Amino acid sequence: MKIVVTGGAGYVGSVCATVLVEQGHDVVVIDNFTTGNRDAVPAQAQLVEGSVADVIGQVLAQGDVDAVFHFAARSLVGESMEVPEEYWRDNLGQSLALLEAMRIHGVKNLVFSSTAATYGEPATTPITEDFPTAPTNTYGATKLSIDYAITSYCQAHGLAATSLRYFNVAGAYGSVGENRKIETHLIPLILQVATGKREDIKIFGDDWPTPDGTAVRDYIHVRDLADAHVLACETNKPSVHRIFNLGSGDGYSVSQVIEMCREVTGHPIPAEVAPRRAGDPATLIASSDKAMNELGWKPSRTDLRTIVEDAWAFTSQLDN
Ligand code: UFG
Question: Where are the transmembrane segments (predicted)?
Fold first, then answer.
């Protein structure tokens, strides 16, 4: 298949582009390198540099594109509350341009990179797809708005689409992993302590209503996530918009993640308790039963040790 991967220089997008190339697909990466890394784009992919809205028309006009995997987005929760205009423009605005280009050029298969942030603060866990969507931040709101637009295009124009709502993506796949210009995510930050780039890790609150008082998250391996995208693309149905949660189904606290990183790296990783971070929920755990039952998704790297080992293999070889 010929597949366009928007945001194919970002973390999840570059892993998916790499897997698609390995599986023999013809991949076109679109990225403007606002947050992505040039090195992360697989060498075998065709690279079109630019914003989605600016270049998608010319890419789809080639006429032989079978599907689009749409990752290009801004994705930092805190930043989305400070500069919401950039999130509405770059997430919703660019996605609407993509949907229009797909309609005009008759490309009807879409896999959309969505987020657990669409659910907001859930009343209970695990979170299933029928939970109310009530995002507590602009990032989640932009992703949810795109879902509404996708649903309309499916109903009116026969688009076949799947939105995948990720929980906490982590790990690495070979030479591609988390390497952001500005890092805010827990596992890469902890591992930066082990490489000497950072002195300690701050634990954002130890008074949460969780077993050890630190926040609990569901970590999913980025390579397992890539499999779900491929399965979604292969099983998309005309006029249907499917939504799936993707997690490992297990929750780990911040303290447990730090401890696992100590074991894997052999570094003492000093930690210090700091105030809670605004907008953080106490616990987020996915039910991925629907993805397993309906997509046939079988995540195989669900234990935290594997996730941290793969992340460490990647992070430890980066230039500091
Ligand atoms: N944390 C710390 N110290 C740090 C960084 C994070 O204690 O230095 C804590 C956070 O407070 C949170 C947990 O570690 O409790 C995980 O934080 P991350 O920043 O790694 O991830 P988030 O859970 O905030 O958000 C991630 C993605 C979102 C997505 C969400 C869905 O970044 O895009 O998972 O679960 F919406």
Answer: none
Tokens representing residue 307 in the block: 């996730």
Contacts of 222 (CB under 8 A, 6+ apart): 11, 12, 15, 169, 170, 171, 172, 173, 177
Alpha-helical runs (H) found in 158-217:
186-195
Mean pLDDT, residues 219-232 taken together: 98
- Cβ–ligand 1 contact at 277 (below 6 Å): yes
Helix, strand counts (H, E) of the chain: 11, 14
Question: Is 186 found in the same domain as 107?
Answer: no
Map residue 46 onto helix, strand or coil: strand
- The residue whose CA has the least distance to atom 12 of ligand 1 is 215
Same-domain status, 262 and 160 = no
44-81 pLDDT tens trace = 999 999 999 999 999 999 989 999 999 999 999 889 98
Active site residue 173: no
Structural domain span for residue 72: 2-169+220-246
Atom of ligand 1 nearest to the CA of 189: 8
143 touches ligand 1 (CB under 6 Å): no
Q: Which atom of ligand 1 is nearest to the CA of 201?
A: 8
- Exposed, middle or buried, 262 (CB in 10 Å: 0-12/13-18/19+)? middle
225 Cα: distance to centroid of ligand 1 (angstroms): 17
Q: What does the DSSP 8-state code read for residue 275?
A: P
pTM for this model (two decimals): 0.96
Q: Is the pLDDT of residue 258 over 90?
A: yes
| Per-residue pLDDT tens digits for 100-115 | 999 999 999 999 999 9
Asked if residue 186 has its Cβ within 6 Å of ligand 1, the reply is yes
Pair 127, 255 in one domain: no
CA of residue 58 to ligand 1 center, whole Å: 37
CA–centroid distance, 186 to ligand 1, in Å, is 6
